[in-house]
Amino acid sequence: MKVDIITVVPDLLSSPFSHSILKRASDKGLLKVNTINLRDHTTYSRAQVDDYPFGGGAGMVIMIEPLVNAIEALQKNTAYDEVIFLTPDGETFNQKIANTLSLKENLLLICGHYKGIDQRFRDHFITKEISIGDYVLSGGELAAAVVVDAIGRLIPGVLNDETSALTDSFQDNLLAPPVYTRPEIFRGWKVPEILMSGNHKLIDEWRHQEAVNRTKERRSDLLD
Fold it and tell me: Residue 167: is its pLDDT beyond 80?
């Protein structure tokens, strides 16, 4: 999979993809993430990419021209399955969306900044709009990192144990059950005996019930 990210602040994205699982995905050739500096595609002086909003009001708006220049340059070499704008008023990101996007070959993510991007670009180029929650960030870079991380770990071969992602929270509209590891007893606190029984059928049933119980307690809306 290839993911291109258009951003005004590319340095914000240098760290998230240089460590841990996503780095291994890159090293294996399973995931390639490219950052494109929007300022490299403006014709304005001093690398300007934003201007005041028509009609007045606070804040600045990213102009349409550098965005179009950037995407048209990229489309000469890549046919994107989705062009995604990270925005607070987009569809709330969830595991189902991550699963769907993980099956794509080429994605383009657009990171907003300031008060957003010119609506005309959204109308004519964006195919999907995503929000990672009901709050506002300084820009879309951190949201892009979240989306790429959630997608990247689902690509076959990225995780050492490919079944691990299938048991994550939200895969079956359930939160994950509690997990334990060594030592078996710590300060008198014991691991549930069922997990030490070796009976995998009963363990699976216990885990499922614990997942249901935790979901009822913490996210009953998922069960609806």
Answer: no
Q: What is the pLDDT of residues 130-161, one digit of tens each?
A: 999 999 999 999 999 999 999 999 999 998 76
CB 12 within 8 Å of CB 139: yes
Class of domain 169-222: mainly alpha
CA distance 191 to 121: 55
CATH 1.10.1270.20 residue spans of the chain: 169-222
Q: Burial of 132 by CB count in 10 Å (0-12 exposed, 13-18 middle, 19+ buried)? A: buried
**Which residues lie closer than 8 Å to 107 by C-beta, 6 or more apart?**
1, 2, 3, 4, 80, 81, 82, 84, 101, 151
CATH T-level assignment (fold) for domain 2-152: Alpha/beta knot (3.40.1280)
Model pLDDT for residues 24-35, shown as the tens digit of each residue: 999 999 999 999
